[in-house]
């Protein structure tokens, strides 16, 4: 049995930020959720308490061997005060899949969602209501045992922190320029690519810096073995519309199973738009471009929801997709998913969880 | 210009542990070294202060994207009180190579060594003098900026913590059993394998658990692309003696350039023992075993120095090497390197730095 949730309210509350000048992931709310794992007690001591620096031993294993996993999801609030979470059960399922890959003990998904709901309810006033804004939710687990042994820790801490975020597209949905990365590798068969663990992200900083220096927004990652198959775009899954069909790389242990990806596929199926999950080579995309059948391309992820790709640079070729404009299917997906998330449209899939 | 080192001594000192019951990396000394990086000041504020938990924001980027690097080296003390560091300049060079891969700003290697010397001098009494014991030194850098943006941090902290360690071989040098891992991957071309960064280590926990469950001490890692070429053993580099020649996998961006490895190669060359750094397939080792020319095998690393491999299991074959006993070259390397480290033998290479 898990202990009951203890709630300590913050004595002083921070002023709420201007929703029009929010930077992603820089502002945090007044409270956070924490829970500990001890070898002999399991996950215990669930608490909501004031957001504050934590005290941690410099030998805590997370600092040395990066035994850590995280999640990212959003809560949306309408002007009339209704708060919706988008598919939180999928995030906690994925957290446990990541835990497994990183040898971290699984959490109870049901009670985690209950605790999250209580935290978000307490922080309700922090959720902006302006078009495109939301509350970004970041659950994460870190290994806290002080030990330099290269082995799974005996103690962990789970946190949920909350950050109000502004619109990803303050001036309307905008296609971006993407560079195909062929030197460095994000993930490989047998590695940690399908887990949401920190090491996958810092591994990509050099490639991202190169892309930025060359005027691109993000990199497109190829498979680590042959640098032939398309995997992801930045921290998003990727889709192409080729000759009327939507294709996306099939899942493998080097691709993160995005919840937006899953939603896109379900939505397309409900629309009877042909969609297939299969291996896609960069050459296939280039050939489609050359013969005029590369019709649209976009990334999918919690932060941007849908991010149209206007330009794709591979080696010496820059492909302009759909004249650099957002394609029709891309637009429909963006509108429908965000409308469901914010309650503007009916949710026939049961994706949203009202508080 | 870097600021001068500020030293705050601990008011109460911890009792020194029994050198015969030390577990690796579980006991820490009274003081630690810290230094901060700020975007507008560079590396600043070097301090030696009491070893204690640190205060850090839960949004600190190290927790989310594992932007972190570390090092490991040892100090040895003789009964007459002389303290020697083993090749510290190599460790700080490697730290900066790791920093580069992880987009962390480089540190000044010279001043880092000066600060390390001051820290070790202050903690001199913590260094055990018994046969095989030493003081393990763990420098590490973590990204401290509170931000959820997937990008290099603007602030960092470097720590050096110290841990007295017991003998790796309390009952004399012992060959171990190794299992070749073919499912999961530690590192791949274009990845972070040649950097000493946390993500490489927790990625191997599942494989290590499988090895342990099957009665093996460590795993042998193959290349991530073809699972054909030998890379490392656990957290050690690996050597084979085949038909009179010592061979070790050549360096690549998926192999950590070990300082013990480097010392082994230099020592073998000085002994005129044939040694070559080249690609080695698992099949080659198996063939050598089959035709009776696989004479010795060992791992090399700071913790064990030299770790003889008595048994190597690949798929259905278990190869017993040198009758399961430590080979002659393995023994000579272990003795000579440890003798140089502890000052029992002359150091013709200038490897040791006396305090
Ligand atoms: C590497 C990676 N790929 C894809 C995604 C998209 O996943 P989701 O749609 O669940 O946000 C993410 C997370 O945002 C990610 O970190
Ligand atoms: C992955 C890995 N390989 C090899 C080594 C050996 O390096 P060194 O001899 O510098 O300790 C280490 C560090 O101990 C390591 O972490």
From TrEMBL, chains A, B:
Gene3D superfamilies: 3.30.470.10, D-amino Acid Aminotransferase, subunit A, domain 2
Species this chain originates from: Paenalkalicoccus suaedae
Coiled coil: none
A biological process term (GO) from this entry: isoleucine biosynthetic process
Sample GO molecular function, one term: branched-chain-amino-acid transaminase activity
Modification N6-(pyridoxal phosphate)lysine occurs at: 196
Similarity comment text for this entry: Belongs to the class-IV pyridoxal-phosphate-dependent aminotransferase family.
InterPro entries associated with the record: Aminotrans_IV (IPR001544), Aminotrans_IV_CS (IPR018300), Aminotransferase-like (IPR036038), B_amino_transII (IPR005786), BCAT-like_C (IPR043132), BCAT-like_N (IPR043131), BCAT_family (IPR033939)
Cofactor(s) the protein needs: pyridoxal 5'-phosphate
Keywords recorded for this protein, A-Z: Amino-acid biosynthesis, Aminotransferase, Branched-chain amino acid biosynthesis, Pyridoxal phosphate, Transferase
Pfam families the UniProt entry points to: Aminotran_4
E.C. number: 2.6.1.42
EC primary class: transferase
Pathway: Amino-acid biosynthesis; L-valine biosynthesis; L-valine from pyruvate: step 4/4; Amino-acid biosynthesis; L-isoleucine biosynthesis; L-isoleucine from 2-oxobutanoate: step 4/4; Amino-acid biosynthesis; L-leucine biosynthesis; L-leucine from 3-methyl-2-oxobutanoate: step 4/4
Keyword presence, tRNA processing: no
Reaction(s) this enzyme catalyzes, per UniProt: L-isoleucine + 2-oxoglutarate = (S)-3-methyl-2-oxopentanoate + L-glutamate; L-leucine + 2-oxoglutarate = 4-methyl-2-oxopentanoate + L-glutamate; L-valine + 2-oxoglutarate = 3-methyl-2-oxobutanoate + L-glutamate
Name this protein carries in UniProt: Branched-chain-amino-acid aminotransferase
Domain of life of the source: Bacteria
């Amino acid at each position: 049995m898990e202990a009951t949730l203890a709630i300590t309210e913050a004595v002083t509350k921070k002023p709420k930020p201007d929703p029009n000048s929010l930077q992603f992931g820089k502002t945090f709310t007044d409270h956070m959720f924490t829970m500990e794992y001890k070898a002999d007690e399991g996950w215990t001591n669930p608490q909501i308490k004031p957001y504050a620096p934590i005290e941690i031993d410099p030998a805590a294993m997370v600092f040395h061997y990066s035994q850590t996993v995280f999640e990212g999801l959003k809560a949306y609030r309408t002007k009339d005060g209704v708060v919706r979470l988008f598919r939180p059960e999928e995030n906690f399922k994925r957290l446990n899949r990541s835990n497994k890959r990183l040898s971290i003990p699984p959490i109870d998904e049901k009670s985690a969602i209950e605790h999250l709901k209580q935290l978000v309810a307490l922080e309700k006033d922090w959720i902006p209501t302006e078009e495109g804004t939301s509350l970004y939710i970041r659950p994460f687990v870190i290994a806290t045992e002080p030990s330099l042994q290269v082995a799974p820790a005996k103690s962990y801490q789970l946190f949920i922190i909350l950050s109000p975020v502004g619109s990803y597209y303050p001036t309307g949905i905008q296609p971006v320029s993407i560079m195909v990365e062929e030197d460095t590798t994000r993930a490989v068969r047998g590695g940690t690519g399908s887990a949401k663990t920190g090491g996958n992200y810092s591994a990509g900083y050099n490639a991202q810096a190169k892309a930025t220096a060359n005027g691109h927004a993000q990199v497109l990652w190829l498979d680590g073995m042959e640098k032939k198959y398309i995997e992801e775009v930045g921290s998003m899954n990727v889709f192409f519309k080729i000759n009327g069909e939507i294709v996306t790389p099939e899942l493998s242990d080097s691709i993160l199973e995005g919840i937006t990806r899953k939603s896109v596929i379900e939505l397309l199926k409900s629309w009877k738009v042909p969609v297939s999950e299969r291996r896609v080579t960069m050459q296939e995309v280039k050939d489609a471009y050359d013969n005029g059948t590369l019709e649209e391309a976009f990334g999918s992820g919690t932060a941007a929801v849908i991010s149209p790709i206007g330009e794709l640079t591979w080696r010496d070729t820059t492909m302009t997709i759909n004249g650099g404009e957002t394609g029709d299917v891309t637009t429909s997906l963006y509108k429908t998913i965000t409308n469901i998330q914010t309650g503007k449209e009916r949710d026939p899939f049961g994706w949203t969880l009202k508080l």
